[in-house]
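Appendix B. Chain record.
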Amino acid sequence: MTRRTKIVATVGPASESPDALEALIRTGVDVFRLNLSHGPLEEHLERVIEIRAAADRVGRVVGVLADLPGPKVRCAPFPDGGVMLETLAVVELAAGSASSDQRRIEIEYPSLPSDVRVDDYVILGDGAITLRVLQVVPVVRAVVESGGRVQGRPGAHLHSKRLRLETPTEEDLVLARAMAAADVDFLAVSFVRAAADLRRVREVVGDWRGGIVAKIETAHAVEALNELVEEADAIMVARGDLGIECPMEDVPHLQKQIVRRCVESGVPVITATQMLESMITAPAPTRAEVSDVANAVFDGTDAVMLSGETAIGADPVRVVRTMARITERA
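Structure tokens predicted for this chain:
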């Protein structure tokens, strides 16, 4: 049985060695994703060379997708070891970059006080910690609706429609030029809102022959889906941030809507995020994950993407082998 759905695998500490790259190619990886949010540019450029060399040794053509970071709002650093934000605790939110603790969280976004509204949600990190704004004057206060331990400088997700950040950022454009010069096959643009965002990337890469991928991960992008499908060379259903931006119960419907629109237009579409998440530590996926992957294939997705599963997982080769079996059977 021939597998038609492509597998995109994120490179990270668990999969960056030459031997690991070669094993993943032999197992079925079609495209490697470089997450430019982590690590210096020089390391990513070296990985492009290592991926090409591994593909040559195996005798297969493998693509490289460079994922641009996009704008990122972060909290000021929490104390070493982190702090516990207790559910129902009330915290102050302030614009700043000095420090954060369990009573006052500084967010590196100068217009925070004027851009949040009562009942807005502020999501910290990967979505596990949720704050709801109670008041905005004279200071912004929020209640912790779902608590947990927070440490380092976690991301802070604010309401995207009022967020005064542009994409692509200047850093994105610098990275895009460098990765295009390294002849990667795809550039993924994060937090796109309109087709003009993609055109800005096209302008800086000149006559580069690769494809630009629009990541659909905000309400703005969903609303602009038609123009993004027209402008992009491929679309990614980035369910992680999309699931923070929109109610989680809406994500399956949005995924189907996006995939259907791409299939109708003949534009390749990648379905991403938490597809085999449990296999970061477990030797086998959950039955729900197997169904999730298979249903994405049934809907017409052209590729499925692995993130932490291959970047930091215990056994990236087993993950790819499992993904290949599911997509081939579907």
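Further analysis of this model is presented in Appendix C.
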